[in-house]
Every structure is written in structure tokens, then in C-alpha cells.
User: Fold this.
Amino acid sequence: MKGKEVVLVQGMNPNPNDSLITIAFAGRTARELGAAKVTGVIPYLGYMRQDFRFHDGECVSSRQMAWALNQSIDKIITFDPHLHRIHDLAEIFTIARKRLSANTAIAEHIKKKFQKKGTVLVGPDIESSQWAKSIADSIGFESAVFSKERLSSHKVKLKVGNGTEWKGKNVIVVDDIISSGHTILETLKELRQRKVKSIHVICVHPIFAENSYTKILRAGAKTIVSCNTITHKSNGIDMSGIIAEELAK
Assistant:
């Protein structure tokens, strides 16, 4: 290992605490053994949604996670991290970082599976426009983005903009992370009321907490496809080629 570049590939779901300790220990050990460079490939970067102290005494775990990795590895590579109150990985990481996008792979999947005519890509909230609208624009598909008002951690209210003819359309809902699934479920409810022909769901990171995968299917999704940043039976879009290209640079 001495003088060599080491690449650690580590998932962070479903046990992020164990995963973080594992990569931190492995990274520091590689350094102790003389590795010239240690790169951590973490397809889904956990803890990023805890980007604020919502209640007194809470840990802002996104910053603590970054601190641990800053001490352990030299570079991090990840896909579509959750960036909300933290706007850029540079705000918390002092090491080299590379933010990869799943958009191109998702766009290719959609082109293979769906006809442009009669298909609309939907983002369930404004934040999701960087996936839904960007992907739609890249392949010439129609798109629409809903606005979301979060009433609580388990309740949201959606507003659907005007200008889109929904009846009889095939709709693809695209989002970065599906965890509890409440936003997606509300989106499906709104779409069903508009008499769409079919609803399909695509996400980058398939957490699917609280049995949300089954709930979404029961709510009317014809298919659910995810990227394999997290291992799940819905995986249908492979990220390994993008990772290999980045490592080869």
C-alpha cells in the first residue's frame, strides 16, 4: 500500500453510523500504512439532511460527518448530495470533493423507455427542478415542477402550476431522495385527480423508509426505478460507469 493511491468504496445506508466509522478507520489506517492518496467513493452521502439544529441540543450531523472524513481521507466522490441550507460541499469539506450527477444516466433511461410525445417529467417541489426540468430539457421532453409547503415532517401540501395539459399523459416523477415518501404520495394524489394515463417514479437515492416503496406502488405508481447509489430492488440505473470514468481521470 505504501506510495499507492487507495480508493475506498462505502455505502452509507441503512447503517450510516457504522459506515462512517468504517471509512474513517480505513482511511486513517491507509494513511498510516503509507498510502499516497486516499479517495472515498460514497455514492449516497448520509447525514446531509441534518443541516441545521432544528431543536435545542441536536447535533448538526452533516458538519460532524464532514469533520470526520476531513481527518481520514484526501478526497470524496459522491452523487447528488442533499444541498439545502448547506449550498456547496466546500462549506463543510476541506478535502478535495467531486459532486457527480445522475442526470445523464437517468435521461438515457427515460429515452429508452418512454416516447417523447405524451410524456411529462414532473418535479414534486422546486428543489427537484435540478433533476426533473434539467433532464427533460436535455432530451426535449415536456416538464412541470410543483411547489411544496411542508406542514410537518409527515405532511405536505402541493400546488400545481397552470399551463400543463395532464389528461391522458404518461407522467414521470423525478426526485433525488425518496425516504418517507410523503411528498411523492401527495404528488401521485394530485396527478390521479388530473386523469393522467400512467405514473412512473424515478429517484437517485432509494432510501424508502417506513415501507414507502410499497405505499407508492399502492398509491398508483406503475413503476419505480432508482439509481444504485443505495442497493434496493428498484435499482435500474447503474452509476458504476460514471464512477469509473471519474476515477480514471
The longest strand covers residues 170-178. The longest helix spans residues 16-32. The chain has a mean pLDDT of 93. DSSP finds seven helices and twelve strands in the chain.
